[in-house]
Amino acid sequence: MRSLWPAVFGLVWQFAQAQPATPPSIVFGQSAPLSGPAGQLGVEMNFGANVYFHEVNRKGGINGRRLELKVLDDRNEPRRTVDNTKRLITEDRVFALLGYVGAATTQAAVPTLNQHGVPLVGVFSGADSFRAPNNPNIFNVRAGYLEESQAIVRHLLTVGLTRIAVFYENDANGQSGLLGVEGALKERGLRSVATGFVEPNGIDVAQAVKQIVPAEPQAVVMISAYGGSVSFIREIQKLAKPPSLWNVSFVGSQVLSRELDERGRGIQISQVVPFPWNANVPVVREYQQAMSQVNGELSFGSLEGYITAKIAVEGLRRAGKAPTRASYVAGLESMTNFDLGGYPIRFQPGNHNGSSFVDLTMMTSNQRFVR
Question: Hey, where are the domains in the chain?
Fold first, then answer.
């Protein structure tokens, strides 16, 4: 598997050389998987955010202050995320947090960030636990699993597929996605024909296959990172007539396509950011130009990181020349109808769910995607 992590190290070094660290900087913190079975998710998210910060710094920063992003690897393990969050807040003295990855990991860190009143902008998860009830410190950029599930189920029913099973990761992320699919089906008088799960960071899907295959589903919706999804897909594709396979955006689209290669043809994925190769969308065109400056690979994950960082910076611009965490939260909440360039964000006091954007894509046999 090709990793972006060496490129991230190179990008951070390049930024440090181009922009000397002269105080006072505004430092954001990020805990994300940079290694392990979900490592590519964090690497892409971090890369995109760093690319946007570099663009801001190149133009003079925010009110003359340079932006920095301190990232720590949590390997998608909740205990590490808690430790990282405590270190970022108490030792590194970050101003705010940005771009966490995963539901179980982020949820474990919520008591710490709440205790210290530190805002978190953007979680790479559609879990409902970050959306309802509203957490005054968490700002969700992406749509939730309910919106993704609704889009998938609506499409499946439109093409006449009603026997739908669910494969999920057995953590807060997967369980939230399962509830989203079950809820979307229930609204239409249906229920899943079978469910099966894989443990977090795991690839043993034998039991899940045994639970799902006998039900003869016409489609399977997967809520799992790429490790478990790849294993499940390979087993399901051994069937004489495999069902239609779908995944929500959390899977990590690029790495899934690389792992499956030719076998990925026809697998469909819901996305929560615009198509990264569609330059007709202004924010995508801006992202493409920025990525070209650092020879970055276009991806859904790095675009989400770029968009998340762009929102975080807009909040800073609205927080005043001497921003505090309180003024920063107020700045973000003032983005009641903010258009990033074809990607509207709507935050407000009491509702920090910024986007409901969902798109449906399909993998081709040459590791590419179509809409």
Answer: 5-142+278-345, 145-271
Q: What is the pTM of this model?
A: 0.92
pLDDT tens for the 371 residues of the chain, in order: 344 545 554 555 444 444 444 448 999 999 999 999 889 999 999 999 999 999 999 999 999 999 999 999 999 999 999 999 999 999 999 999 999 999 999 999 999 999 999 999 999 999 999 999 999 999 999 999 989 999 999 999 999 999 999 999 998 889 989 999 999 999 999 999 999 999 998 999 999 999 999 999 999 999 998 999 999 999 999 999 999 999 999 999 999 999 999 999 999 999 999 999 999 999 999 999 999 999 999 999 999 999 999 999 999 999 999 999 999 999 999 999 999 999 999 999 999 999 999 999 999 988 899 99
CATH no. of 145-271: 3.40.50.2300
- Asked if domains 5-142+278-345 and 145-271 share a fold, the reply is yes
For domain 5-142+278-345, give the fold: Rossmann fold (3.40.50)
Query: Helix/strand/coil (H, E, C) string of the chain?
Result: CCCCHHHHHHHHHHHHHHCCCCCCCEEEEEEECCCCCCHHHHHHHHHHHHHHHHHHHHCCCECCECEEEEEEECCCCHHHHHHHHHHHHHCCCCCEEEEEECHHHHHHHHHHHHHHCCCEEEEECCCHHHCCCCCCCEEECCCCHHHHHHHHHHHHHHCCCCCEEEEEECCHHHHHHHHHHHHHHHCCCCCCCEEEEECCCCCCCHHHHHHHHHHCCCEEEEECCHHHHHHHHHHHCCCCCCCEEEECHHHCHHHHHHHHHHHHCCCEEEECCCCCCCCCCHHHHHHHHHHHCCCCCCCHHHHHHHHHHHHHHHHHHCCCCCCCHHHHHHHHHCCCCEECCCCEECCECCECECCCCCEEEEECCCCCEEC
